[in-house]
Amino acid sequence: MSHTNLITLNRWLLSETHKDLAHRLEMANLMQGIQLACKITNNAIKRAGFEQLFGLAGITNVHSEDVKKLDIIANDAFKMALKSTREVFCMVSEEEDSIIPVPEGQSGNFVITFDPLDGSSNLDCNVSVGSIFGVWPKISSDKNFSEKDVLRKGRDMIASGYALYGSATMLVLTLGNGVFGFTLDNTVGEFILTHSHMTIKHKGQIYSINEGNSVYWDKSTQNYVNHIKSNEGGKTPYSSRYIGSMVSDVHRTLLYGGIFMYPADSKSPQGKLRFLYEVAPLSFIVEQAGGKSSDGKTACLDLVPKNIHQRNPVFMGSSHDVSLLEKFHAEHTNESHSK
Ligand code: AHM
Ligand code: MG
């Protein structure tokens, strides 16, 4: 083993000095649950070929998407590992129709939203996928949760992060005080701090969007993408990279800079990605790394969802790139108003 600085995620959580001890203990305990769910999911993915875990489960979810066997394994792992921490008040999962209750006597102070296995269309061909989570403090003072505990601004989040099941397994996390990346060392079964204070470049050179949808895009998205691809005035055209797993595309954007986009278009008028467990948690990470995340006009963290599975258009990444995209959107809006 050749680590020079062995800080495990557990130790790092307990030494987060900007919070009081009680909060640190609650958060460390909650994160134990999240780490455990990520390790179970990681193992299931790595062993899927031997244990017939690839393929469909034969049911559809609330979004009318085909559910894969691994989606169910990951969802159960998150629900069980989180409930058993006794720190969770209620949960929202991409895979469940309604808010998930926690039995009385086992409930705690945090509201958790998660996408247990994001990018699952990529699973069967061995392309990187991930898990995403957001953490909010509960609002209801009594034992029963209500929608007001979950239909809230992204800015109310106190932690968020993702696990990336790639060539290495990583957990990237913010507690509102910067972004930190931990890599799973399989030899000891621990997430070890490998990426301190992750920051995103002010301007990148990569754009990431499903270009197959370009016939459905509005003029502002079309003009913006044409602009960054052009070599007018001697500028270097941006490179295109699109994995189709949001966690992987956002992780690359965080490390290399650029912009990740899933716009609204005439086929998906609200975009595709869901606010509570995809857009908001990753927007928190990107902002904490010094980048920007916007729906084209408003910072995503300032949006308030109307239902738990609400979708939102999203543009996130280097602040220069996202600001320029917003300019194209504003010009397009002004043009359509003046017609
Ligand atoms: P999923 O949570 O059901 O896997 O769907 C979300 C995924 C994102 O990871 C990714 O950015 C997007 O869907 C890709 O969608 P598309 O295939 O339309 O480009
Ligand atoms: Mg998803």
TrEMBL record:
One of its GO terms (molecular function) is metal ion binding. Pathway: Carbohydrate biosynthesis. Keywords: Carbohydrate metabolism, Hydrolase, Magnesium, Membrane, Metal-binding, Transmembrane, Transmembrane helix. Its EC number is 3.1.3.11. The keyword Zinc-finger does not apply. It holds the Pfam family FBPase_C. InterPro entries: FBPase_C_dom (IPR044015), FBPase_class-1 (IPR000146), FBPase_N (IPR033391), FBPtase (IPR028343), Fructose_bisphosphatase_AS (IPR020548). CDD domains: FBPase. It is an enzyme of class 3 (hydrolase). Residues 7-195 form the Fructose-1-6-bisphosphatase class I N-terminal domain. The chain crosses the membrane at residues 162-184. Belongs to the FBPase class 1 family. This is fructose-bisphosphatase. It comes from Tieghemostelium lacteum. The lineage of its organism: Eukaryota, Amoebozoa, Evosea, Eumycetozoa, Dictyostelia.
